[in-house]
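pipeline: protein-struct stage 2 | run 1193 | DinB family protein
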Amino acid sequence: MCRAAHVALMARYNTWMNTRLYAAADGLPAAELARDRGAFFGSLLGTLNHLAVADTIWLKRFAADPDAHAALEPVRALPMPEALDAVPFPEFARLSERRRMLDAVIERWTASLDEADLVRPLHYRNARGQAFERETFGLLMHLFNHQTHHRGQATTLLSQAGIDMGVTDLLALLPDLGAPADTGVHPH
């Protein structure tokens, strides 16, 4: 699989998992979503807000690049989050809406990338103002790895609340090359 196809696969996995995660969390009362369960960002709501904040920061960095793809246009108008632990969406419905928008942008953008885009360096500054230059592919792998890391925490928080997420592995999206058709059964 070429790197561009891998990036597009990771974007689809991201959307698939976020859709399932938010559907599971939607069944919890607001007090349970905001309940501090000892995670890095306290609650499930704090953890999911952190992911929306971090994704917004990274997408705005990519969108600020002079060679940015048109698919990133929707994030240019978004306000830059003030802190990684900010909770700009205390209401779950608004957070869900933002998550769907971010995931749609990520999928459209990554589907438009080719190998030349992935080797292109991105010049950006972190929250402390330090300048960096890194290859786009590596930064995208960081974006997806960061999401996976915190979604793992979110699934644990859901488990603590009595909700089983079921299968969360990327393997569930990979075709079985030896099978005649997808049976809906995905081995781990």
